[in-house]
């Protein structure tokens, strides 16, 4: 009984198992295999389809509704920049104007060669920079780099005015480099290479007079034209006390030279001057105004003065006529004195014995060159300022000029301008500059004025000058 039942019992589940196994199991596996990719693709499709659609959560939807577009991720930003570079502005950005401008890179095209001009300043290592007059020839971001080989090739010196082609700086370069020299001091570079150095040129007395009584003349310039004429290559000094109108006189002289002698290159150098007077000069004088105001340090005054002098020398070497109007040589000497290292020998007033050598070299550079150009320097010197140092400086320069114009405080206190002390103002060898007839009449005039005091003499001359239109009539 048991035996017959057992096989049946064991067989029945076995049969069931064999029946179910091949049918059920593969079905599950198939379903597994079949459904997996199907679900994935559905998800991907859903992702792609639903990306722009808002999320189903109502709260979040409301939150995001009023917010501006989210900030782009770094990768997205990079792609956007690429697109904008290539001109494809709307790529991946629904034409949103704000973001288009925000991530836009500036469009600069440096294909063309730029021409630029500057005054050469050579460093100790042999290379140099072209300094800009906009920054008073001090170092600035606009400087142009000049290589050592170019300086050697063209025989360039400090103060040369170089015009040339410039290219934009490459990666790692700080300044625009000079790639081609077009002109040096307004001349062909090949001609300039063989020039004679300024120190070896022959100085002469001034031969040709500046006409200060022609166009744009004032009573000041007409009086100067007769009593203390200025020639090309003159080394003149205007000696004055404070508040006697020396700056106005310089301005009149500058405008008269610019109007009657356009061929002359004129520089007005203001050292230790008031800023408002610098602006006034720049606006009312035709000429290059280089200034170092009193709030700058002494070494800046000295540097500007040196580069202006070097520039003038280089122009004279190339045959140009140059005029420097310096206000004032006393303050320049003070700046040199404070920069000069102590030598141990000190003159009265606290002036170092060696400090006055350089301002003397500046003033002494004025000369008329034989068969060449000329350098004229008209400088103002301060006296009776109450400073012992100013007196010492003035005494040192007293005999070095070949033209002297004295201004008197007593005359200016009477509000008579120009406040010129006529009897003590004169030019050395003025017989070369004036014709014989004028000189004869001037001697008679001086004899007559010598008996009067300076105030009376100036009043007398002023009245006579106002009645006449020009010096010939006078």
TrEMBL record:
ATP binds at residues 231-236, 243-248, 274. It comes from the Bacteria. Residues 113-188 form the Rho RNA-BD domain. Keywords: ATP-binding, Helicase, Hydrolase, Nucleotide-binding, RNA-binding, Transcription, Transcription regulation, Transcription termination. Residues 22-35, 42-65 have a biased composition (Basic and acidic residues). Homohexamer. The homohexamer assembles into an open ring structure. This is Transcription termination factor Rho. The lineage of its organism: Bacteria, Pseudomonadati, Bacteroidota, Flavobacteriia, Flavobacteriales. The gene is rho.
